[in-house]
Amino acid sequence: MRAAAVRNALRERNVRLLVASGATDALGNNMAAVALAFAVLQIGSPADLGYVFLAREIPMVVFLLAGGVWADRVSRKALLVLGNLATGSAQATTAILFLTHHATIWRVAVLQIVFGVAGAFTRPASTGLIAQAVTHAHLQEANALLDLSRSMLRVIGPALGALIVVEARPGWALAADAATFFVVAALQLRLRIPAGERPVRNRMLHELREGWTEFTGRTWLWTMVTSFGLFQLTLFPALLVLGPSVAKAHLGGARAWGLILAFQGIGSIFGGFSALRLRPRRPLVAATLLCVPIALLLALLGAAAPVPLLCAAGLLASWGLTCGDIIWFTTFQLHVPDHLMSRLSSFDWFGSVALNPLGYALVGPLANALGVATTLYIAAALNACISVAVAASPAIRGLERAPQGEPIAA
Known about the structure:
mainly alpha, 82% helix
């Protein structure tokens, strides 16, 4: 379990604060994952749920590249704190709307726009901040511990969210999620970021072009990011929109869906522990192939398989995704210089989520036209094929692991 390395990493104050903030964030978000879906389904259709997520994804895509430039220009910590305060306020307003019976699809969608704009700035800032706040020798341990802290709350969060939905009202789970954003902001304020020498800043468009040149010059990077975009085109729209719909129609509702999500959280815990030990020679091949099991979960959802089987598939799928994510982020952080970290991270996030709005816009109409099961089968097949094809590409097979603790400005 590399226990000594974990203990050494936890001696760093910033690692402890990052782990605590990650766990708090995960608790709220995983309660909200159940609560928001079933709250919207109470006042609308699966297509409406897709449109709510679409309202969040469009501004994220629009502002991500600007967010990456700003995260390399100003304090990443300040961006994260402001982003959490904004999203906490938006979620608190959403909770009030549902608790007072004033929620409508368009009002909820408008508030999701705040999530999208904030996420466009906080996602690239977060990747850069971790590499900035943690010593390189403990980077993979820190990433694994961060993922473990989130994963442990992925077990409790969905179950707690489902319990609140069933026993009380979705609005109360959304209110609890809002509170966690403010706690996370308070924890992030306590981070001590070493003062580093910042390069001379140029105009935003110049820095954006510079980031694009650096991004396109790394074949391994744009290949992975392209695959992420194609992978997520079907994964999250299918899982987050059609999954709750299958649960509501065939599996018993919010309680069953919360249980499936909780087992995905268990899988993430095992994935985090596994990532503490995994040191693949070809990290990107491993990261890509570890994503294949998610196709099994989507296919079983299409078949409306029994809940225990879906729980097992969710555990396996989440184990693979978690291992793959940790390996990917560590590889990215070790191969990208600090002054480019947030800009290249913004291209990573942009490419990963650019097709999400299309997915959320189409998943409801496709399910209506082809059927929920067929749509899920298509998503499963596409995801498996993309992962295998990318793992076989020369650029991905050719990138080897960086020496332990040494960043490489490749």
